[in-house]
Design a protein that fits this description.
Layout lengths: L1 H10 L6 H21 L5 H24 L12 H84 L3 H7 L3 E6 L7 E7 L4 E9 L3 H21 L5 H15 L12 E10 L4 E7 L3 E5 L2 E5 L6 E2 L11 E4 L5 E5 L7 E2 L4 E2 L2 H11 L4 H16 L8 E7 L1
Antiparallel strand pairs: 1-13, 2-3, 3-4, 4-5, 4-8, 5-9, 6-7, 6-10, 10-13, 11-12
């Protein structure tokens, strides 16, 4: 564009036109400065290339203007317009220089801020990554420990199940029976027990030890061990005397003296002696009762209101109940896990009266069908709530 303007000025004899001399040079000077201002901070190679290009253009246009006769000596230096133009051009150049310096300082300031923020972000990222790795390591350690603990508990469960009476023993003595046994955890604080004394007498029980899970399992194994010792070394086998001896054994084993700050562990139990020759039953209970259903009527034979273990009434002897059995009698002994379960629409406990009503409703069903109904009723009542305690129900039909 400036070349065409120079040709036009030559043809019209305007070689002393100050605008044709100054304007191209001013534009090229801006072209030289602007790359440094707007490119140089980010890419110095491009800035140097832009500046070099501007210098070449400056020389090129100077030669072109000289060729067409537009030279510095032809300009009217003493004109007012020339002086004002030079002053304005100088002022603009000074402003541009200061603007470039100002922009450069702003750019340096923001570059420092960005660098600092980037460094802080990287430090935070590294710290978060380190914390994440530490949490992962801790999680892996915890999972490994949980696997080891669970494996140990599962092995303890096999030991506990081995100590429980086999189904064959119960089937041999009581062909018409069921056992509904549902631990809350892998191992249980509830246990059932049976032992033949001779050809006509059998001891059997349903016990509920303090706690559930591992603590309850320790107590259940202690209880089974003590019962075996009592029956092996005793000459009398009435249920109440067995419970009296069992209480002594638990207090001695746990070193219970009745002090306020010591553990009050023990068990609730329903223990029976069945005499097949006399067709009779003896019962003694620690908290837990025995239900006898005869002619569709439920008879609640209550246990004593004290546990097998340390208690303010532990000097009192347990009571022995004698029952003459009749054909088609049904008896039920159990822990409190079934009636303690929360559920239903109002998320309340199952309660004893509902349990008694359920037993009366199903007592004439086949014995294994009764167990199935009890389990299904429990699951329907519990719904999606957690099981709160170990469950044990034993039913026998004579």
């Amino acid at each position: 564009m400036f070349v065409f303007a120079s040709v036009y000025a030559k043809l019209n004899g305007e070689t002393n036109n100050i605008l044709l001399f100054i304007t191209p040079r001013f534009a090229i000077i801006l072209f030289i400065i602007l790359p440094v201002a707007f490119i140089g901070f980010a890419d110095m190679k491009k800035a140097y290339f832009g500046t070099l290009t501007g210098i070449i253009l400056y020389i090129f246009f100077d030669q072109i203007h000289g060729f067409f006769g537009i030279k510095l000596e032809n300009l009217p230096y003493d004109s007012h317009f020339y002086k004002m133009f030079i002053f304005a051009l100088s002022a603009i150049m000074v402003i541009i220089v200061f603007l470039i310096i100002f922009l450069q300082k702003i750019n340096i300031f923001y570059e420092k801020m960005v660098t600092q923020q980037k460094s802080e972000i990287e430090n935070q990222r590294d710290e978060i990554l380190a914390q994440s790795n530490e949490l992962k390591n801790q999680r892996d350690i915890t999972e490994e420990q949980n696997r080891n603990i669970k494996s140990s508990i599962q092995y303890a469960s096999r030991i506990q199940n081995a100590l429980l009476p086999s189904q064959e023993i119960f089937n041999k003595i009581f062909p018409n029976h069921f056992i509904f046994y549902k631990p809350r955890d892998i191992v249980s604080g509830d246990f059932y027990y049976i032992k033949e004394l001779d050809n006509q007498r059998v001891i059997f029980a349903a016990a509920d030890c303090t706690g559930h899970g591992v603590p309850g399992a320790f107590m259940s194994m202690l209880g089974m061990t003590l019962l075996n010792d009592i029956l092996a070394n005793s000459q009398t086998f009435s249920p109440n005397e067995i419970l009296n001896e069992l209480r002594k054994g638990i207090k001695n084993s746990l070193q219970q003296t009745g002090k306020i700050d010591e553990a009050k562990d023990g068990m609730d139990i329903a223990l029976c002696l069945f005499d097949s020759k006399n067709f009779s039953l003896q019962f003694s209970g620690a908290h837990n009762p025995l239900y006898l259903i005869r002619n569709n009527e439920l008879i609640d034979i209550k246990g004593d209101k004290m546990p097998v273990g340390v208690h303010p009434k532990d000097n009192n002897l347990f009571t022995n109940h004698e029952i003459s059995l009749e054909k088609n009698d049904k008896i039920y002994i159990f822990s409190d896990g079934y009636v303690s379960q929360f559920g239903g629409e109002r998320k309340e406990t199952f309660k004893t009266k509902y349990f008694q009503a359920l037993l009366l409703k199903i007592c004439n069903e086949p014995i294994l069908k009764q167990r199935e109904i009890l389990e299904n009723s429990f699951l329907e009542w519990k719904r999606n709530l957690e099981q709160v305690d170990d469950i044990l129900v034993i039913g026998i039909s004579f």
